[in-house]
Amino acid sequence: MTSPDLSALVLLSGGQDSTTCLGWALDRFDRVETVGFDYGQRHRVELEVRERIRGRIEGLKPAWSGRLGSDHLIELSVLGQISDTALTRDAAIALADSGLPTTFVPGRNLIFLGFAAALAYRRGIRHIVAGMCETDYSGYPDCRDDTIKAMQVALSLGLDRRVTIHTPLMWIDKAATFALALAIAGPQFLDLVVEETHTCYVGDRTQRHPWGFGCGVCPACRLRAEGWARFRKEDGC
User: Fold this and answer.
1) For the ranges 108-117, 122-131, 149-158, which has the lowest average pLDDT?
2) Does domain 4-234 have CATH number 3.40.50.620?
3) pLDDT by residue (tens digit) across 127-176?
4) Where does this protein hold ATP (predicted)?
């Protein structure tokens, strides 16, 4: 078995951020496993693209050959049952009275990290890689760096084993995330991110834009479109 210090578990939703993080992890760890969560999300098409992403990514760099390990899909429908949000119901995407967007699923990332850590413990893995970002996000408090650091401490104490949570995108925006994908594995990886990943909150894969598939109007699509425009401008294209 590969050393726990040379293995990682990546939270792979099927979106731009988590796919970029998967490439980041393949560059750094000898064995990389992935985990996804089915919580009754409105945009569950993201779960369908995960297999295609995994099927293509390992062949993008010779060094990645043989590094991609098992995939795990954890059923968490109970989270959707207790979450009255625009990500788990056919509801309007807007700002709620709390000041948070209606797409905020309370406790989602805390629950994801808890389950990921339990799975990693069983699999002999001490490194968890996740795509949370505080720079270019939708205002979710469970994406903040302080939240992730607190979870790392809590999980390490609760499991009596050092758990390290890596968030490579924490301090970069969407434009820099596109640039990171290009830097990690060149145009082929950037093409995979554009063609295969899914970020649109309403799950629309019927409309193809320069930055990928999506409705084009939800907050996730707007962030991605604005990031792509900045990336192309900064890249000189």
Assistant:
1) 108-117
2) yes
3) 999 999 987 666 788 889 999 999 999 999 999 999 999 999 999 999 99
4) 12-22
Binding annotation for Zn(2+): 200, 215, 218, 221
What does DSSP assign to residue 76?
-
Identity of the amino acid at 113:
L
* Distance (Å, whole) CA 131 – CA 11: 8
CB neighbours (10 Å) of residue 74? 15
pTM of the model: 0.89
Residues 6+ apart with CB under 8 A from 237: none
Q: What is the DSSP letter of 101?
A: B
Q: Flag whether pLDDT at 86 surpasses 50.
A: no
Cβ 126 vs Cβ 120: under 8 Å: yes
Binding residues for ATP: 12-22
* Other Cβ atoms within 10 Å of 80 Cβ, number: 20
How is the chain split into domains, by residue range?
4-234
What is the layout of strands, in order, in the sheet containing 127-129?
68-75, 31-38, 7-11, 127-129, 164-166
